[in-house]
Amino acid sequence: MKERIQALREKLLALKIDACLITSAVSHLYFTGFDNPDAMLLITMENAYAFEDFRYIETAENKLNGIYTVIKPENLISQYINEIISNEKISKIGIENKSITLYEYENISKKLNARLVGIDDTILAMREIKSPQELEKIAIAQEITDGAFAHILKIITPLMTENDVASELEYYMRRHGAQDKSFETIAISGAKSSMPHGTPSDTRLKKGFLTMDFGALYEGYHADMTRTICIGKADSEMRRLYDTVLKAQKSALDILRDGLVCSQVDKVARDIIDADYKGCFGHSLGHGVGLEIHEMPSLSPKCDKILACGNVVTVEPGIYIPKKYGCRIEDLVIIKEGEIRNLTKSPKELIEIY
Q1: How does pLDDT run across 36-51, given as a tens digit for each residue?
Q2: Do the Cβ atoms of 19 and 13 come closer than 8 Å?
C-alpha cells in the first residue's frame, strides 16, 4: 500500500494538488487492502489518514498500522480534515468527483476550507495497470469461474430453468472460494439469448442457444466469462453464427498485445462479424476488469487508449438477432509484453445438451 500512496503523491505533485480525499469503497480497498464502504482517506504529501467507524476500527488498526494514522471520528469528519488542512497548509484537495453525487460534492465543498479538484481519472488510470498480486487474485477468481462452467456442464438438463442454471453457477463459486458473484449472473435461453444482458427466469430452458455470462469475486477482484451452448441440436445456421463469433474472438486474441490501440482490436473482430451479420454486434469487444467489473481500458471502436502490460481485459464478441437468438463467447486476458495470458480455460467448441 505504501507504493500506491507514494505513486498517488507523485501524481498529485505533478498536478499541483496538495492532498487527495478518498471517498469511494473501491478506492478505499485499493489504497488500504480492506473493504469499508463508509470510510474516508485523506492522503497528503506528508501523511496519510484513515477515518474508520466503530465497525471497522479494529481491522483498520491491525492492517494500517505504520501506514495510516487511523482515526475513529467522535465529531464530524470535516472538523478533523479542516484541522489537518490548517496544520499542513493545504489549499487544494483532489476528490473522486465521478463517484459521488452532486449533493455530496456540494456538501463536502461547503464544509472544507480548501478548494476541491476532480481527480477520478488519475486514480482510475493508476488502477488500469495491475500489480503481480492483483493479477494473481484475478487469476484465482477466473479459475473458480472456469470450475463453475465445468460443473454446470456435468449437471445441466433441458428440464432445468434459467434460474436453476444461474443458481448452480453462483452456488459452485461460493462453495469454491468466491466471496460473491462478480455481477448478476446471466443465463438466458432460446429467443431471449438475443438480449445481451437478459435476465434469467423460472421458465424451463428453451431449445436453441443458452448464453451464460458469470464470474467470481475473489478478495475484491472480479472475473468475467461467457459461454454459449445449445439446448438440443444446433442447425446449420446456428453453427454458422456460432463459428463466426468464435472466429472473431480468436482473431482478436491472435493480435492482442501491448502497444495496440484499443479500437484496432475491436475492429478486427467487428469486421469479421459485419461481413455477414452487419448491425448484430452492438456492444464493445471488451472492457477492463479489476476491483470493478467494468474498468478502463475499453476495447471499443471509440477508445484510443494504448494497451499496456498489466492491463486485464475481456474479449467478448457476440451476434444478436432480435426475437430469434444470440451468441457470445468471452475470455479474460492479461496483456503482457508482446503476448497475452488467457486466464479462461473453458472449452469453446459448440456443446449440445440433450
Answers
A1: 888 999 999 999 999 9
A2: no
Cell of 199: 435476465
- First-to-last alpha carbon distance for the chain, in angstroms, is 51
Res 97: pLDDT: 87
Nearest-Å Rg of the Cα atoms of the chain is 23
Write down all domains in the chain, each with its CATH number in brackets: 2-127 (3.40.350.10), 132-353 (3.90.230.10)
Cell of 192: 431471449
Cα 120 to its chain centre, rounded Å, is 16
- Identify any residues that bridge with 334 across adjacent strands, giving them in sequence order: 312, 341
Residues 6+ apart with CB under 8 A from 40: 21, 22, 23, 28, 50, 51, 77
Instruction: Give, as one character, the DSSP assignment of residue 34.
Output: S
How does pLDDT run across 54-68, given as a tens digit for each residue? Answer: 998 999 999 998 999
CA–CA gap between residue 213 and residue 289 (Å, rounded): 14
* Sole residue written with cell 462452467: 149
To the nearest 10 degrees (0 to 180), the angle between helices 102-111 and 77-87 is: 50
Asked if 198 and 192 count as a contact pair (C-beta separation under 8 A), the reply is yes
Q: Which triple of cell numbers denotes residue 8?
A: 498517488
Sheet architecture: strand order including 92-95: 69-71, 48-51, 40-44, 19-22, 92-95, 115-118
Confidence at residue 37, expressed as pLDDT on a 0 to 100 scale = 87
pLDDT of residue 259: 97
* pTM, two decimal places: 0.94
Beta strands 331-336 and 312-315: pairing type? antiparallel
